[in-house]
Amino acid sequence: MSHYAQHIQTVRERFDAALSATGFSSVLVYAGQPRVAFLDDNPAPYKVNPLFKYWIPVTQSPKSAIFYRPGEKPVVYLFQARDFWHAAVDVPEEEWQQHVELKIIDDVQAIANDLGEQLKDCAFIGENFAQPVADWPVATVNPAPLLDHLHYHRAYKTAWEVDNLRQANLLAARGHLAAREAFFAGADELRIHQAYLSAMNFRESEVPYNSIVALNEHSAILHYDIYQTQAPSESRSFLIDAGATYRGYCADITRTYARQAGFFADLVEAMDSAQQELLSEIKPGVSYYDLHVSQHLKTAQILADFGFINGSAEAIYEKGYSSAFFPHGLGHFIGLQVHDVGGFLRSDNGDSYPRDERHPFLRLLRPVEEGQVFTIEPGLYVVDQLLEAHADSKDINWDKVDQLRPYGGVRIEDSIVVGGDGNNENLTRDAFSKLD
Ligand code: GLY
Ligand code: MN
Ligand code: MN
């Protein structure tokens, strides 16, 4: 059986279990449709419902839907406008079409008409902000127990999903190499971003999130996406956090570069080694929370080694200093979404782990298990807003912090597939080494 055939079988089984556990007899997964801006008729970039592309690798066919009743073949209503304003999106003949009953429609109401009375007992999953979908007499819209059940199991990726994630990482790595080259050639942030897109043959709306393309102190702004159009007179450091999608699956990669050998290059290298050491601690049974704390201790050690803070790694962590330099979570699930859902779910019945007060931005609290895919993305930055709380600290060597500030900071981010007993796959490093 092909990887896709196995995948859709798994998706069917997961829907069977979720529907049976939550008492619904069928489901209608709506692909969604673009929203328009206020007082305008221009559509915003369209993002397909992730639970639609979970079934089939179709990401650019808004107003389509999948109807599934356990035991029956899924029905795909594929919307293709008969419309002289827009070009029809080409949906090539592919394997997925053998696994579904395909119905081409050119009017979204045809879905409801075709389903008739069946609509009344089905659970609708998707956005229904527009007519006529908003008025369809479905049993319920986005019931939380059904979504939780599906989201819990989505954490375990099928072989086909991992194939797609591998390709997404290859694409993004290609973009990253072009961006690195543009940085060393002295380009400004916008030109670097354009080099990134161009190397992947992507338009901007195709990347899974706004690329973070940051020179110098901009690297300390966690979600920096302004893109200056003038290069700074001295381009000292470069942090790029940028992804790609392949058949609906996302890559999310960060790399940091120093223009010259010296203090900042050494810091990047130390962070890279610490990240790789952390990668070797990932195995089924450990908790992702403990990995996050382990990374804090490594980051704290680097803060001590580089003379930013006096004290042991443990003391630096306990006093909260490492959180000022590393304020975000170690990572998150990744797959159909960059921040794949389900990181707080304790089980498929919707129970969840309480958010941790010490680490409020950590999005993943589940134990590590085989088949999960998540990012590992430690960082170390000068965020003045967070350092204010420690302004009177005698432990912090402020002249050292001042030395780092013009470089912004460092983040290194890879995506990992958890294998049995520590036999993990690093999708990101493997992609870079294929291209080198
Ligand atoms: N690029 C967003 C993140 O790393 O989570
Ligand atoms: Mn990430
Ligand atoms: Mn990222």
UniProtKB/TrEMBL annotation:
Class of the enzyme per the UniProt entry, highest EC level: hydrolase
Keyword check for Protease: yes
Residues the entry annotates as binding Mn(2+) 2: D241, D252, E413
One record GO biological process: proteolysis
Reactions catalysed, as given in the entry: Xaa-L-Pro dipeptide + H2O = an L-alpha-amino acid + L-proline
Binding site for Mn(2+) 1: D252, H332, E377, E413
Keyword Hydrolase found: yes
GO CC terms, sorted: cytosol
EC number from the UniProt entry: 3.4.13.9
Coiled coil regions in record: none
Record domain Peptidase M24: where: 164-418
UniProt entry keywords in alphabetical sequence: Dipeptidase, Hydrolase, Manganese, Metal-binding, Metalloprotease, Protease
PANTHER family referenced in this protein's UniProt entry, alphabetically: XAA-PRO AMINOPEPTIDASE 3, XAA-PRO DIPEPTIDASE
Family assignment from sequence similarity: Belongs to the peptidase M24B family. Bacterial-type prolidase subfamily.
Protein's job: Splits dipeptides with a prolyl residue in the C-terminal position.
Protein name: Xaa-Pro dipeptidase
Organism field: Idiomarina xiamenensis 10-D-4
